Amino acid sequence: MTQQPNPRRWWALGALVLTSLAVGFDATILNLALPTMAGDLHADNTQLQWFVTVYTLVLAAGMIPAGMLGDRLGRKKTLLGALAIFGISSLAAAYAPSAGMFIASRAALGLGAALMLPTMLALIPTMFTAEERPKAIGTLASASLLAFPIGPLLGGWLLNHFWWGSVFLINVPVVVLAILAVVAWLPESPSQPGTRIDAIGLVLSSAALTAMTYGLIEIGARGWTHVAALGPILSGAAALMLFVLRERRVSEPLVDLSLFTNPRFTAGTALATLVNFTLFGVLFVLPQYFQAVMGTDAMGSSLRLLPLIAGMLIGMSTAGRLGTTIGPKLTAGLGFVLLAGALFWGATTSTGSGTALVAGWTITYGLGLGFTLPTVMNAALSALSPAAAGVGAGVTQSIRTLGGSFGAAILGSILASAYRGDVPPQARDSVFTGLAAAHSANSAALEDTVRSAFVHGLDLVLITSGGLGLLGVLLVLTWLPGTAERPEPGTARAQQVEIPDH
C-alpha cells in the first residue's frame, strides 16, 4: 500500500537548498580567488591545480561511504555533522598560512561536502512522488546554481576590499542558517544499523583516485612521458582494477556494481560525469584568463562569469518543461550540441578578443549545461528505489565529481603543458609569475609572449572540451531513453516511503 508523502517535504527541501548553497559558494569562489592566492601563498600551477582538485578528489572518494553512513545513522544526523565539518574547515581555509595548509583545509572541506551531497540526493526519491521528483531535483539543482551569481559577485567585492581568506568566511553564516533549517524542517530517516562499510574497498578506491589524479596533475609540470606522471597513473589504474574485483566478490560491497546493469542509471551517470569534466576545466581557466589577459580585477572577473550563469539558470528553468514536450533524449542532445558549439566558438579566443566574444560563447555554454545536467541526473536518479537511494546517489555523485576532478587535472595539465612550452624558464610557474617577471624586467615583449602562451593553452582546453561535448551528443542518441520513465504502480520506485518525524 502506498503511504502518504510527508507533509513537510517542501519545507525540508528548503533546508536542502541552504545546504546546497553552502557547497556551491565554496566551489565558485575558489576559482575566482586563484589569481590572488597564487601570489599571496606563492603557489605554482601544480599547487593551484591541487587547490581545486583535492576538494573534488576527497569529495569523490568519500561520497560512496557517505551514502552508506547516511543510510546507517540517519540522514538528518549525517547532514548536521557534515555542516559542522564544512563550517570549521571553511575557517581553517580562510586563515591558512601556506599552500600546504590550504590544501589540507580544502581536503577537510571535501569531506564535509562528501557527507552532504549523497545524503541530500538520497532524500529526494524517499520524500517525493515520481511526479514531484523532477521538480524537486530541479529546485535543488537551481538552488546550487544560485551560488554562481551570488558567490562570485560577493567574492569579487570581498577580494577587492579584504584579503583572499575572506571569501571562505562567507560559508560560515550560510552553514549556521543551514543547520538551523535542517534542525527545524528536515525529518529524520529510519536508520539501517546493519550496514557495514567495506574498509579495504574504501582504501583501494581512495588510493586509485589519489594516484591517478596526482599523475594527471604531474603531466602538466613534467610532461606526458615522465615516470613521475605515468607511474602514479598506472599504479592507480591497478588499484582500481583490484577494487572492482573485490567489489564483485564481497557480500556487502562499497559500490553495488549491479546498479550499472540498469541502462538509465548508467547513461545518466556517465553523461553527468562528462558535463562535469568540461565545467570544471572551464571554471579553472576562465578567471585566470580574465585577470591575466583581459586585465580585470576580481570583481570584474566575477561580473564576466554572469553570462555563463544566466545561461545555466535559463536552461535549468526550462529543461523540465522541454523534457516533457520533446523527451529527455532530445532535450539532453540539444544541450550537448549547444555546449560543444559554444566551446569550439570559445576556442577562437585571441589575446585581442573582447568581452563580447566571451559573453557570447559562455551564455551559450551555460544554456547547454542547463538543458543537459538536470535531464541526465533525473535519468540516473529515476532508476533508484528508495531502499537504494543513499548508495545509488552516492555512486552517481562520486563518479560525477570524479569527472570534475579529472577535468580540472587533465585540462589543467593541457593548459600548463602548452603554456610552459611557449615561455622562457623564469615565466613557467604560472601566467601570473610570467607577468610579474615581465613587469620586473620592464619587457613588453615577454608580457606579450606570456599572454599569448596562456591563450594558446586556453584554446586547446576549449577544443578538447568541445570534442567531449560532441561525444556527449553521440552517447545521448545511443543511450538515453526517448521518453521519461513512469514507474508502474506497486513498484519500489512508485511507492513513497514516509520519513517519520522525530
Helices, strands, pairings?
Elements: H1 9-40, H2 45-73, H3 75-94, H4 99-127, H5 133-161, H6 166-169, H7 171-185, H8 199-222, H9 227-247, H10 263-292, H11 298-304, H12 306-326, H13 328-346, H14 355-381, H15 389-420, H16 431-441, H17 444-479
Helix pairs in contact: 1-2, 1-4, 1-5, 1-7, 1-10, 2-3, 2-4, 2-8, 2-15, 3-4, 3-7, 4-15, 5-11, 5-12, 8-9, 8-15, 10-11, 10-14, 10-15, 10-17, 12-13, 12-14, 13-14, 13-17, 15-17, 16-17
Describe what you observe in this structure.
- With 502 residues, the chain is mainly alpha-helical.
- The chain has 2 domains: 9-187 and 254-479, MFS general substrate transporter like domains (Growth Hormone, Chain: A), CATH 1.20.1250; 198-253.
- The chain has helices at 9-40, 45-73, 75-94, 99-127, 133-161, 166-169, 171-185, 199-222, 227-247, 263-292, 298-304, 306-326, 328-346, 355-381, 389-420, 431-441, 444-479.
